[in-house]
User: Fold this.
Amino acid sequence: MVDVQELAAIEKQLATARADADQARAKAAYDRAELTRLRTLYRDARIVSQRDVQQAAAAVAIDDAAVTSATAAINAASSDAVQRFGPVLAKAIASRSALYQDLVSMRQMLVEITFPPGTTAPQTVRLTAAGGSVAPARFLSAAPRVDPRLQGASDFYVAAGGKLAAGMNVVAHLPGGSAAAGVIVPENAVVSFKGRSWIFVRSDATHFARREVSIANPLPGGFFVAGIPAGTEVVTTGAQQLLSEEMRAGLHAD
Assistant:
Protein backbone atom coordinates (compact mmCIF):
# COMPACT_ATOMS: atom_id res chain seq x y z
CA MET A 1 0.00 0.00 0.00
CA VAL A 2 1.31 3.42 -0.94
CA ASP A 3 1.46 6.17 1.67
CA VAL A 4 -0.62 8.93 0.05
CA GLN A 5 1.05 11.57 2.22
CA GLU A 6 3.50 11.76 -0.68
CA LEU A 7 0.66 12.85 -2.98
CA ALA A 8 -0.48 15.45 -0.46
CA ALA A 9 3.06 16.77 -0.02
CA ILE A 10 3.51 17.25 -3.77
CA GLU A 11 0.10 18.93 -4.05
CA LYS A 12 1.09 21.29 -1.23
CA GLN A 13 4.33 22.15 -3.06
CA LEU A 14 2.34 22.88 -6.22
CA ALA A 15 -0.22 25.00 -4.37
CA THR A 16 2.51 27.03 -2.64
CA ALA A 17 4.44 27.57 -5.87
CA ARG A 18 1.27 28.61 -7.71
CA ALA A 19 0.33 31.08 -4.98
CA ASP A 20 3.85 32.54 -5.07
CA ALA A 21 3.66 32.83 -8.87
CA ASP A 22 0.25 34.54 -8.76
CA GLN A 23 1.49 36.99 -6.12
CA ALA A 24 4.66 37.72 -8.09
CA ARG A 25 2.72 38.28 -11.32
CA ALA A 26 0.28 40.64 -9.61
CA LYS A 27 3.12 42.65 -8.08
CA ALA A 28 4.97 42.68 -11.40
CA ALA A 29 1.87 44.03 -13.18
CA TYR A 30 1.48 46.79 -10.60
CA ASP A 31 5.17 47.73 -10.59
CA ARG A 32 5.32 47.71 -14.41
CA ALA A 33 2.37 50.07 -14.59
CA GLU A 34 4.07 52.30 -12.01
CA LEU A 35 7.27 52.27 -14.04
CA THR A 36 5.35 53.34 -17.14
CA ARG A 37 3.70 56.17 -15.19
CA LEU A 38 7.02 57.42 -13.75
CA ARG A 39 8.71 57.32 -17.14
CA THR A 40 5.91 59.41 -18.60
CA LEU A 41 6.14 61.95 -15.78
CA TYR A 42 9.92 62.14 -16.10
CA ARG A 43 9.82 62.53 -19.87
CA ASP A 44 6.98 65.02 -20.13
CA ALA A 45 7.22 67.17 -17.02
CA ARG A 46 10.29 66.16 -15.03
CA ILE A 47 7.99 65.89 -12.00
CA VAL A 48 9.88 62.82 -10.81
CA SER A 49 13.60 62.20 -10.77
CA GLN A 50 15.56 59.78 -12.88
CA ARG A 51 16.41 57.94 -9.67
CA ASP A 52 12.69 57.28 -9.10
CA VAL A 53 12.49 55.76 -12.57
CA GLN A 54 15.57 53.61 -11.96
CA GLN A 55 14.20 52.31 -8.66
CA ALA A 56 10.91 51.42 -10.32
CA ALA A 57 12.76 49.58 -13.10
CA ALA A 58 14.76 47.64 -10.47
CA ALA A 59 11.53 46.64 -8.74
CA VAL A 60 10.16 45.29 -12.02
CA ALA A 61 13.35 43.26 -12.56
CA ILE A 62 13.02 41.76 -9.07
CA ASP A 63 9.38 40.93 -9.77
CA ASP A 64 10.31 39.17 -13.02
CA ALA A 65 12.93 37.10 -11.18
CA ALA A 66 10.33 36.11 -8.56
CA VAL A 67 7.93 35.00 -11.31
CA THR A 68 10.70 32.92 -12.91
CA SER A 69 11.58 31.32 -9.56
CA ALA A 70 7.97 30.46 -8.76
CA THR A 71 7.45 29.02 -12.24
CA ALA A 72 10.54 26.86 -11.80
CA ALA A 73 9.14 25.60 -8.48
CA ILE A 74 5.86 24.67 -10.19
CA ASN A 75 7.74 22.80 -12.90
CA ALA A 76 9.92 21.00 -10.33
CA ALA A 77 6.90 19.86 -8.29
CA SER A 78 5.13 18.71 -11.46
CA SER A 79 8.23 16.79 -12.53
CA ASP A 80 8.49 15.16 -9.09
CA ALA A 81 4.88 14.03 -9.38
CA VAL A 82 5.45 12.45 -12.81
CA GLN A 83 8.68 10.75 -11.74
CA ARG A 84 7.15 9.30 -8.57
CA PHE A 85 3.61 8.49 -9.66
CA GLY A 86 3.46 8.74 -13.47
CA PRO A 87 1.41 11.10 -15.66
CA VAL A 88 -2.04 9.80 -14.66
CA LEU A 89 -1.63 10.45 -10.94
CA ALA A 90 0.44 13.59 -11.60
CA LYS A 91 -2.52 15.05 -13.51
CA ALA A 92 -4.88 14.07 -10.67
CA ILE A 93 -2.61 15.80 -8.14
CA ALA A 94 -2.25 18.97 -10.21
CA SER A 95 -6.01 19.28 -10.79
CA ARG A 96 -6.99 18.05 -7.31
CA SER A 97 -9.44 15.76 -9.09
CA ALA A 98 -12.01 13.47 -7.49
CA LEU A 99 -9.45 10.64 -7.66
CA TYR A 100 -6.93 12.72 -5.71
CA GLN A 101 -9.57 13.70 -3.14
CA ASP A 102 -10.60 10.05 -2.69
CA LEU A 103 -7.00 8.93 -2.21
CA VAL A 104 -5.94 11.56 0.32
CA SER A 105 -9.16 11.07 2.28
CA MET A 106 -8.54 7.27 2.13
CA ARG A 107 -11.94 6.58 0.64
CA GLN A 108 -9.78 4.76 -1.89
CA MET A 109 -6.34 3.21 -1.34
CA LEU A 110 -3.42 3.33 -3.75
CA VAL A 111 -1.71 -0.03 -4.18
CA GLU A 112 1.61 -0.61 -5.96
CA ILE A 113 1.90 -4.19 -7.26
CA THR A 114 5.00 -5.86 -8.68
CA PHE A 115 4.21 -8.75 -11.01
CA PRO A 116 6.53 -11.57 -12.10
CA PRO A 117 8.57 -10.79 -15.24
CA GLY A 118 6.57 -11.22 -18.43
CA THR A 119 3.20 -10.81 -16.69
CA THR A 120 0.74 -8.36 -18.25
CA ALA A 121 -1.03 -6.30 -15.61
CA PRO A 122 -4.73 -7.29 -15.56
CA GLN A 123 -7.50 -4.73 -15.28
CA THR A 124 -8.65 -6.18 -11.96
CA VAL A 125 -6.99 -8.20 -9.20
CA ARG A 126 -8.03 -9.53 -5.82
CA LEU A 127 -5.95 -8.37 -2.87
CA THR A 128 -5.34 -10.38 0.28
CA ALA A 129 -3.75 -8.73 3.30
CA ALA A 130 -2.36 -10.13 6.52
CA GLY A 131 -5.28 -11.14 8.69
CA GLY A 132 -7.33 -12.36 5.75
CA SER A 133 -8.79 -9.06 4.53
CA VAL A 134 -9.83 -9.37 0.89
CA ALA A 135 -10.57 -6.50 -1.50
CA PRO A 136 -10.88 -6.10 -5.27
CA ALA A 137 -8.66 -3.53 -7.00
CA ARG A 138 -8.73 -1.96 -10.45
CA PHE A 139 -5.81 -1.00 -12.65
CA LEU A 140 -4.93 2.70 -12.68
CA SER A 141 -1.58 3.15 -14.43
CA ALA A 142 1.94 1.84 -14.74
CA ALA A 143 4.29 2.89 -11.96
CA PRO A 144 7.30 4.82 -13.30
CA ARG A 145 9.88 3.37 -10.91
CA VAL A 146 11.23 -0.12 -10.35
CA ASP A 147 10.73 -1.64 -6.92
CA PRO A 148 14.27 -1.48 -5.42
CA ARG A 149 13.71 -4.62 -3.35
CA LEU A 150 12.10 -6.84 -5.97
CA GLN A 151 13.72 -5.30 -9.07
CA GLY A 152 10.52 -5.66 -11.06
CA ALA A 153 8.21 -3.34 -12.96
CA SER A 154 5.23 -2.18 -10.90
CA ASP A 155 1.71 -0.95 -11.56
CA PHE A 156 -0.70 1.18 -9.55
CA TYR A 157 -4.12 -0.15 -8.59
CA VAL A 158 -6.96 1.48 -6.65
CA ALA A 159 -9.00 -0.35 -4.02
CA ALA A 160 -11.81 0.77 -1.75
CA GLY A 161 -10.72 2.02 1.65
CA GLY A 162 -11.79 0.42 4.89
CA LYS A 163 -10.24 -3.04 4.83
CA LEU A 164 -6.77 -1.88 3.76
CA ALA A 165 -4.35 0.56 5.37
CA ALA A 166 -1.31 2.53 4.20
CA GLY A 167 1.94 0.62 4.56
CA MET A 168 0.21 -2.77 4.58
CA ASN A 169 1.73 -5.59 2.52
CA VAL A 170 -0.79 -7.32 0.28
CA VAL A 171 -0.82 -10.25 -2.12
CA ALA A 172 -2.42 -9.79 -5.54
CA HIS A 173 -4.31 -12.73 -7.02
CA LEU A 174 -4.49 -12.59 -10.81
CA PRO A 175 -7.71 -13.70 -12.52
CA GLY A 176 -7.36 -16.98 -14.41
CA GLY A 177 -3.76 -17.46 -13.32
CA SER A 178 -2.21 -20.87 -13.88
CA ALA A 179 -1.04 -22.93 -10.93
CA ALA A 180 2.65 -22.99 -10.12
CA ALA A 181 4.57 -25.49 -8.01
CA GLY A 182 6.79 -24.10 -5.30
CA VAL A 183 7.14 -23.25 -1.64
CA ILE A 184 6.69 -20.22 0.59
CA VAL A 185 10.05 -19.05 1.95
CA PRO A 186 10.13 -16.77 5.03
CA GLU A 187 11.61 -13.33 4.46
CA ASN A 188 14.43 -13.87 6.97
CA ALA A 189 15.56 -16.97 5.04
CA VAL A 190 16.57 -14.85 2.03
CA VAL A 191 20.01 -13.22 1.88
CA SER A 192 21.44 -10.86 -0.73
CA PHE A 193 24.83 -11.37 -2.32
CA LYS A 194 26.29 -9.74 -5.45
CA GLY A 195 22.93 -8.21 -6.33
CA ARG A 196 21.06 -11.54 -6.25
CA SER A 197 18.89 -13.36 -3.73
CA TRP A 198 19.79 -16.70 -2.12
CA ILE A 199 18.58 -19.25 0.40
CA PHE A 200 20.40 -22.07 2.15
CA VAL A 201 18.99 -25.60 1.88
CA ARG A 202 20.15 -28.69 3.76
CA SER A 203 22.27 -30.94 1.54
CA ASP A 204 23.02 -33.60 4.17
CA ALA A 205 23.01 -34.02 7.92
CA THR A 206 25.81 -31.51 8.52
CA HIS A 207 25.99 -29.33 5.38
CA PHE A 208 23.98 -26.61 3.69
CA ALA A 209 24.08 -25.38 0.10
CA ARG A 210 23.40 -21.86 -1.14
CA ARG A 211 20.75 -21.67 -3.86
CA GLU A 212 19.72 -18.66 -5.92
CA VAL A 213 16.02 -17.80 -5.87
CA SER A 214 13.69 -15.20 -7.35
CA ILE A 215 11.80 -12.94 -4.95
CA ALA A 216 9.49 -11.56 -7.65
CA ASN A 217 6.46 -13.06 -5.89
CA PRO A 218 6.21 -11.50 -2.39
CA LEU A 219 3.76 -12.75 0.21
CA PRO A 220 3.04 -11.48 3.72
CA GLY A 221 6.18 -12.36 5.68
CA GLY A 222 8.01 -14.03 2.80
CA PHE A 223 8.10 -15.02 -0.86
CA PHE A 224 6.63 -17.69 -3.12
CA VAL A 225 9.58 -19.47 -4.74
CA ALA A 226 8.98 -21.81 -7.67
CA GLY A 227 11.14 -24.82 -8.46
CA ILE A 228 11.86 -25.95 -4.90
CA PRO A 229 10.40 -29.37 -4.04
CA ALA A 230 7.99 -29.55 -1.14
CA GLY A 231 9.69 -30.81 1.99
CA THR A 232 13.03 -29.15 1.23
CA GLU A 233 14.64 -28.01 4.47
CA VAL A 234 15.39 -24.29 4.25
CA VAL A 235 17.45 -22.37 6.79
CA THR A 236 15.14 -19.78 8.33
CA THR A 237 17.36 -18.67 11.22
CA GLY A 238 21.02 -17.87 10.74
CA ALA A 239 21.08 -17.63 6.93
CA GLN A 240 23.17 -14.45 7.07
CA GLN A 241 25.65 -16.13 9.41
CA LEU A 242 25.99 -19.05 6.99
CA LEU A 243 26.70 -16.62 4.15
CA SER A 244 29.36 -14.89 6.26
CA GLU A 245 30.98 -18.25 7.08
CA GLU A 246 30.95 -19.21 3.41
CA MET A 247 32.64 -15.94 2.44
CA ARG A 248 35.21 -16.36 5.22
CA ALA A 249 35.98 -19.92 4.09
CA GLY A 250 36.41 -18.67 0.53
CA LEU A 251 38.93 -16.07 1.66
CA HIS A 252 40.96 -18.70 3.59
CA ALA A 253 40.88 -20.99 0.57
CA ASP A 254 42.46 -18.27 -1.55
Notes: The chain has four helices and eleven strands. Helices lie at 5-44, 50-95, 98-104, 239-253.
